[in-house]
Amino acid sequence: MTSEPQAPSSPTAVDPFTGENPPEVADVRSGEDLDWQRIESHLRANLPADLDLGGAFEVMQFPNGAANLTYLVRFGELELVLRRPPFGTLAPGAHDMKREFKVLSQLWRSFDRAPRAYLFCDDDTVAGADFFVMERRRGEVIRGVIPEAMRRLPNVGKRIGTALVEAIAEFHLLDPEACGLADLGRPDGFVQRQVAGWKKRWDLVADPDHDEAMQAAYALLDRAIPAPQRVSFVHNDLKLDNCMFDPADPDRVTAFFDWDMTTLGDPLVDLGTLLNYWPDPSDGASSRAAHPGMERMGLPPRAEVVEIYANRTGFDVASADWYEAFALWKTATVLEQLHFRWKMGDSTDPRMEVIAFRVPELARAAISLLERLG
Which helix (H) or strand (E) holds 97? Predict the structure, then answer.
């Protein structure tokens, strides 16, 4: 499987006037409405009978993602989440709603950070593409600022950062076979396929102004691929704003989101992804895909993140720089993909017009890490 992470943070992720995180739900964005009458009929006929669907049907959108379309659907007091791929041409293997449903219809029994999935539909006449429906979790999603409800808690930045790393470690220590998901992926050669697959993706959307640096980073990555030490679940997009906290408890993650790329492979790929999105005092002007403001939240530095992860898992993290560089290079490709989709008219999201401005910076950061490896 070739995975595609959700878009990195946009420069407008935090309201520039209030300094607050944006609202979690909003009216459906122009151009992203679906056939809600048909969807309502399908859900009422096919969702589990023990769900209370007696109330009036309403729809809103979770607007803060940049790829998959995620909607809040209400039946009176009951709230559920509907997810489907974005419109337009999609990269092969990306935005896999069937995979996400498979994971979440099983994993919630073994890992309580996984929301429960209730229904999958592959009839394109209903919503225009595959989609699935899962439970809604409530809590705080943290982007570039500590939410108001958590600001008075002592050492809150360090605590949420530590909690996230520990939750990822716990996820990586799960036994896929015991979770009923031993057939989720092909772990042999996983990282090699990832590198080759992302190279193909870059070549499909490459901007000539950025191509030299991206090709240089690829060459360094390809010649130094580490040997895996364990087969684990790999989420492929674990970052601070893909999880949720109880506002009264910064010491435990309550949910992970965006499971459509989950597979089996080398767990350090997830560690690299996290580091890619993690600011550090050593960054200076920034070479990360973090939300603006994260550097002021009091999060533990990247070296401490690696140490916490190593202590919790017992894994060898000597090659963490390679995985971090891979994530930076991959994120740069995603930015270019999202911008390319906007250029082709497949996205109406105005953020996508300028989202690729970070590509050269991320490529240079990847090269710098890889050159340290020798």
Answer: helix 97-107
Residue 29, number of CB atoms within 10 A of its CB? 12
What's the token pair of residue 2? Answer: 């070739």
- List, for residues 103-122, the tens digit of each pLDDT value: 999 999 999 999 999 999 99
Tell how strand 117-121 and strand 131-135 pair up.
Answer: antiparallel
Angle at 132 between CA 290 and CA 328, to 5 degrees: 20
Low-confidence ranges of the chain (pLDDT < 70): 1-22, 65-66, 89-94, 284-287, 289, 374
Residue 81's beta-bridge partner residues?
72, 134
Write the DSSP string, 55-70. S-EEEEE-TT-SSSEE
User: Among 233, 335, 361, 319, which Cα is nearest to 4's?
Assistant: 335
State the number of CA atoms in the 13 A half-sphere of 89 facing the CB. Answer: 11
Q: What's the DSSP call for residue 144?
A: S
- Which residues, 6 or more positions from 236, have their beta carbon under 8 angstroms from its beta carbon? 3, 5, 261, 262, 263, 269, 270, 273
DSSP state, residue 185:
-
Question: How many Å is the Cα radius of gyration of the chain?
Answer: 20
Task: Please tell me the class of the 154-372 domain.
Answer: alpha beta
What tens digit of pLDDT does each residue of 344-354 get? Answer: 888 888 888 88
CB 75 within 8 A of CB 53: yes
Question: CA-CA distance, 90 to 109, in Å (whole number)?
Answer: 31
Intra-chain end-to-end CA distance of the chain, in Å? 30
Q: How far apart are CA 342 and CA 347, in angstroms?
A: 5
Parse the chain into domains and list their residue ranges: 154-372
**Tokens 């390809």 belong to which residue?**
222
User: What letter represents residue 164's amino acid?
Assistant: L
pLDDT value for 293: 87
Cβ atoms of 37 and 273 within 8 Å: the answer is no
Q: What tokens were used for 85?
A: 């791929």
Single-letter residue type at 307: E
Taking the C-alpha atoms of residue 143 and residue 139, their distance in angstroms, rounded to an integer, is 13
